[in-house]
């Protein structure tokens, strides 16, 4: 079906979308995203009205885009255009932002960072939104999007939110940092994770402290970090202590 869509003209794909039975429509939308031909994306652009379509169909489109293994710049362009300047249901906006982060990350893995305007626009959409976000829930979504993008230049921003934000924000920022490969977990990142795990500046939620410990243990840990985490485990709840002990044992193996 996807192969057929790749060779179809825009008007044919659009007719297919317009005439598909309601229960088949999510399947056709998903297939049109997977096809990623100029015609299929143009047909989707004409067909999808983010002001009118049911939330479930819009979310299906955005999930299909986010999970696309090798997305194109045109697909990111389509997603950004559909999200831009519209009054969206909160669930659709949240899924859309996380999808933008995923698309940016995958395009950068294809060495397309800096080569496509869509990628730069996607990054600025996330960072600009994060700078202007006043509500904690929105800040969390932008941080999740940055976690999907895995861009080294955003690590300082993530560190700021990891140490200084309210509970949900710090947890989202540390979770985003966990997505980065070892070569980007610098001594500065490790110092911040130590402060979070050992609660040097303020109290942090359990999940945030565990994620910070995981970053320290998963990225060429120093012997002193292992020792300090084990010593701290004596004062933690049983579940947390057990988790950290298993983590250390796995590292030793």
From TrEMBL:
Top-level taxon of origin: Eukaryota
Protein name: MTP protein
Species whose genome carries this gene: Corythaixoides concolor
PANTHER family: MICROSOMAL TRIGLYCERIDE TRANSFER PROTEIN, LARGE SUBUNIT (PTHR13024), MICROSOMAL TRIGLYCERIDE TRANSFER PROTEIN-LIKE (PTHR13024:SF2)
Gene Ontology molecular function terms on file: phospholipid transporter activity
InterPro entries: Lipovitellin_superhlx_dom, MTTP, Vitellogenin_N
Cellular component terms per the entry's GO annotation: basolateral plasma membrane; endoplasmic reticulum; Golgi apparatus
One GO term (biological process): lipoprotein metabolic process
Ranges that cross the membrane: none
Pfam families linked to this entry: Vitellogenin_N
């Amino acid at each position: 079906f996807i192969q057929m869509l790749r060779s179809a003209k825009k008007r044919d794909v659009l007719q297919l979308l317009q005439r598909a039975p309601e229960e088949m429509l999510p399947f056709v939308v998903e297939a049109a995203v997977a096809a990623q031909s100029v015609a299929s994306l143009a047909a989707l652009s004409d067909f999808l009205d983010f002001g009118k379509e049911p939330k479930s169909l819009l979310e299906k489109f955005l999930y299909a885009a986010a999970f696309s293994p090798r997305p194109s710049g045109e697909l990111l362009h389509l997603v950004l255009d559909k999200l831009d300047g519209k009054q969206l249901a909160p669930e659709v906006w949240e899924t859309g932002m996380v999808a933008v982060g995923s698309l940016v990350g995958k395009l950068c893995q294809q060495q397309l960072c800096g080569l496509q305007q869509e990628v730069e626009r996607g990054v600025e959409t996330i960072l600009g939104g994060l700078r202007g976000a006043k509500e904690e829930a929105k800040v969390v979504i932008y941080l999740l999007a940055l976690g999907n993008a895995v861009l080294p230049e955003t690590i300082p921003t993530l560190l700021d939110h990891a140490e200084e934000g309210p509970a949900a924000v710090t947890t989202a920022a540390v979770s985003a940092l966990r997505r980065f490969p070892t070569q980007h977990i610098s001594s500065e990142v490790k110092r911040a994770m130590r402060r979070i795990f050992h609660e040097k500046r303020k109290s942090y939620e359990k999940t945030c402290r565990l994620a910070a410990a995981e970053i320290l243990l998963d990225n060429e840990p120093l012997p002193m970090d292992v020792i300090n985490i084990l010593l701290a485990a004596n004062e933690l709840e049983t579940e947390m202590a057990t988790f950290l002990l298993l983590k250390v044992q796995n590292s030793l193996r």
